[in-house]
Amino acid sequence: MCYTHMTEDERYELDELLRDGFSQRAIGAQLKRSPSTISRELRRNKGERGWRPRQAQRKSVARLTARGSHNVKRVSLQTWEYAKNRLINDQWSPEQISGRLNHEGLLSISHETIYQRILKDKQAGSDLYRHLRSKKKKKKRYGSGEYKREIIPGRVDISKRPAIVETRKRIGDWEGDTIIGSHTGGAVLASMVDRKSRFTMLVKAANKSTKAVIDGISQCMLPLSHWVSTVTFDNGREFCMHQSLADTLDAKIYFATPYHSWERGLNENTNGLVRQYFPKKTPFDNISQDDLRRVVEKINNRPRKCLGYKTPFEVLSAACKRKGVALCI
After folding, report:
1. pLDDT: which is higher, 307 or 4
2. What's the rounded mean pLDDT across residues 65-85?
3. Fewer CB within a 10 Å sphere, N or C end of the chain?
């Protein structure tokens, strides 16, 4: 059971589960939180129109920063310059900055203090807050809730996936999805992320056709094929040629339950990170390979709390060293 404050990502997952009719007890089990934590979250962070994830996050941050306001003056100039540099140049979150300071043995500050500094900066008319990752108010809902089955040849449901994949104990279990650009029929991005290391790969496909997408993923992932055991996709028609990818990478392909986005929660979160650099309505046709490489490097060099504030690149590099293979990407 987790005893830390709820995160922004957890609040958006909570919103999704509420919309799908899950009880507070079931939501608690999914988020590894006690039912009382879920109940308290819905009670104390609601507004006039009820509980909403974005509003709840703002109320929580405001409460925590107000509680720790006396710590603001204690931050050294060197520490704050480190924090600003990581926020502006690398788009790290306050939590990642705080955790990485501690990981590197430097003078650490809490993420609440960083949020308060950013808030004061905004009130002074500056734009430091614009480097924070932002989220939309509501998650757009697709479909009526009733799954309209698309025929995906040889589709293997996620329920058949080996149990070890869920444990995240090994590198080699990936989640994949496509990210849509500014207009129908244009270029799309395919994102792939490893469940254990959080290492991310991006590739641009000329369009959303299954051949363009699968060929792009195959080319992108081939140098890492020795680190690919399974891939879990959503049920988009662009993955119909999955068997070709399975043959190229010598991997097993599985498909998530329709409308159960939390079964690929890591991939959904990663797509949100990508949107920080390529916002919605961005024409992907104009994105170069150098642009993609730059974004991938930034994402893979962000420290992650779940990795003990190591970066995905550090985790995968260490695994390659233990295995005696080169990391070729």
Report:
1. 307
2. 72
3. N
- Give 21: exposed, middle or buried? Use CB within 10 Å, 0-12, 13-18, 19+: exposed
Strand segments (E) across the chain? 173-180, 188-194, 200-205, 230-233, 252-255
Which residue, among 18, 20, 19, 261, has the nearest Cα to 28 in the 3D structure? Answer: 18
Residue 175 CA to residue 267 CA, distance in Å, equals 6
pLDDT per position as a tens digit, 128-168:
888 887 644 444 444 444 444 457 999 999 999 999 999 99
Sheet with 173-180, strands from edge to edge, namely: 200-205, 188-194, 173-180, 230-233, 252-255
- CA 40 to chain CA mean position, Å: 25
Q: Determine the straight-line distance between the first and last CA of the chain, rounded to whole angstroms.
A: 37
Which of the 8 DSSP states describes residue 172? -
How many angstroms separate the CA atoms of 189 and 181, rounded? 8
Tens-digit pLDDT profile for residues 175-189: 999 999 876 668 999
